[in-house]
Amino acid sequence: MSKVGDALAGFGVTFKTMFKKPITEQYPEEPGPVAPRYHGRHQLNRYADGLEKCIGCELCAWACPADAIFVEGADNTEGQRFSPGERYGRVYQINYLRCIGCGLCIEACPTRALTMTNDYEMADDNRADLIYGKDKLLAPLTPEMTAPPHEMAPGSTDEDYYRGNITATGLARQRESAQ
């Protein structure tokens, strides 16, 4: 008798859903909402004046369990400065064929240069296009930023950058008022 009751309960679920209007998402034309803290595509961030936050330390590559990140650091010179420190990431690549989206690279970054965006549309029909370089990973320049390479803000040190005392036009007013 319990098998007949189980069968009737199953048919009851079927009959309840049979007459409901189906929910159809129009995905490519109308993408659905994304959770605010969703971890999608990576982004290399910049300071307010346009210098890159990545210092080429390769900690993200060491932390990656899937070996999806390749970083090659180089030294900044006075004529060619891409980040406020001594070094910058000359080559930065993430292989999205290998990336598992775990976020360990984000946790390993000492300068918060690498973050994850809400962008989830990374499918492609070509394997080579799923290896993102700095050209695809760097955050876009805003109108008040200057494209690197350029000098650090006058009178600033790399510590001012790491503490967030730099604005798009130079040192923050809080530092000027302290002097």
TrEMBL record:
Signal peptide: none annotated. It comes from the Bacteria. The keyword Metal-binding applies. [4Fe-4S] cluster 2 binds at C64, C99, C102, C105. GO terms for biological process: aerobic respiration. The keyword NAD applies. It is an enzyme of class 7 (translocase). Its main location: membrane. It is a peripheral membrane protein. It is found in: Cell membrane. Keywords: 4Fe-4S, Cell membrane, Iron, Iron-sulfur, Membrane, Metal-binding, NAD, Quinone, Repeat, Translocase, Ubiquinone. Residues 44-74, 90-119 form the 4Fe-4S ferredoxin-type domain. Binds 2 [4Fe-4S] clusters per subunit. Pfam families: Fer4_7 (PF12838). Its EC number is 7.1.1.-. Residues 143-162 are annotated as: Disordered. Its cofactor is [4Fe-4S] cluster. [4Fe-4S] cluster 1 binds at C54, C57, C60, C109. InterPro entries: 4Fe4S_Fe-S-bd (IPR017896), 4Fe4S_Fe_S_CS (IPR017900), NADH_quinone_OxRdtase_chainI (IPR010226). GO terms for molecular function: 4 iron, 4 sulfur cluster binding; iron ion binding; NADH dehydrogenase (quinone) (non-electrogenic) activity; quinone binding. One of its GO terms (cellular component) is plasma membrane. NDH-1 is composed of 14 different subunits. Subunits NuoA, H, J, K, L, M, N constitute the membrane sector of the complex. NDH-1 shuttles electrons from NADH, via FMN and iron-sulfur (Fe-S) centers, to quinones in the respiratory chain. The immediate electron acceptor for the enzyme in this species is believed to be ubiquinone. Couples the redox reaction to proton translocation (for every two electrons transferred, four hydrogen ions are translocated across the cytoplasmic membrane), and thus conserves the redox energy in a proton gradient. Belongs to the complex I 23 kDa subunit family. This is NADH-quinone oxidoreductase subunit I. It comes from Mycolicibacterium cosmeticum. The gene is nuoI.
